[in-house]
Write a structure and sequence with these properties.
It contains 7 helices and 2 strands; from the N terminus they run ββααααααα. By secondary structure, it is mainly α. It is flat, with a radius of gyration of 22 Å. Residues 38-44 have low confidence and may be disordered.
Length: 169
C-alpha cells in the first residue's frame, strides 16, 4: 500500500484514531512520518488536524502570488518575502507564532487608563482558548472549572462597565 501523504513510498506506519467507536486510519511511509513528527516550529502538523481535515498532498504547495515564496522558503529563512505572504500563509504563520509565543495576538504595553480593562479582556481570551483546548482534549472536569472562571470574569467585566457608564435617566 502506498503512503497516503506522498503517494510514492510503501506505507510502513499506521496512524489510528478512535472517537466514539469510529476508527480512522492513515498509512504513511517512514520518510513522511519522520518529516511530520520531527519538523521545526513552523510545522502545521497535528494528528487531530490530519484526522479531521485529511492530508494535503505534498505536491499541492501554496505559493505567494506576489513574491513567489513557499512555506518551505519561509521555514528555511525564518522571514516572509512580502506583505502578501502574511495573507497567503495566515493559518500556518498564526500557528507558528502561537507555538513560539504562546498566543498569536500582541499583548504589549497599553495606556495606564486602559490597562485594567485590557488585562481583563486578555485574561478572558486566554481562558476561552484554554477552555477550547481542554474540551478538545476531553478534560471536562478542568473545562468546567475554566468555564466557571470565564462566567465570573464576564460578570466582573460587565459590572465594571456598568459603573463607568453614566446613567441617562
Amino acid at each position: 500500500m502506498l503512503c497516503d501523504y506522498c503517494q510514492k513510498n510503501e506505507a510502513t506506519n499506521v496512524l489510528k484514531q478512535t472517537i466514539n467507536g469510529k476508527t480512522k486510519m492513515l498509512h504513511i511511509c517512514d520518510s513522511c512520518a519522520n518529516s511530520m513528527l520531527f519538523s521545526n516550529l513552523f510545522s502545521d502538523f497535528s494528528i487531530n488536524h490530519i484526522f479531521t481535515h485529511g492530508l494535503q498532498p505534498m505536491h499541492a504547495k501554496k505559493v505567494c502570488e506576489k513574491c513567489g515564496m513557499t512555506l518551505d522558503d519561509i521555514m528555511s529563512s525564518g522571514k516572509v518575502g512580502c506583505d502578501r505572504c502574511y495573507d497567503t500563509f495566515a493559518a500556518e504563520l498564526s500557528r507558528s507564532i502561537e507555538q513560539i509565543h504562546g498566543k498569536s495576538s500582541h499583548t504589549g504595553k497599553a495606556p495606564k487608563s486602559a490597562s485594567g480593562k485590557l488585562k481583563q479582556k486578555n485574561k478572558l481570551e486566554e481562558l476561552k482558548t484554554q477552555l477550547s483546548r481542554l474540551i478538545e482534549a476531553q478534560d471536562f472536569e478542568q473545562a468546567a472549572v475554566i468555564r466557571d472562571q470565564i462566567k465570573a470574569l464576564e460578570q466582573e467585566i460587565n459590572h465594571t462597565a456598568g459603573k463607568e457608564e453614566p446613567d441617562h435617566e
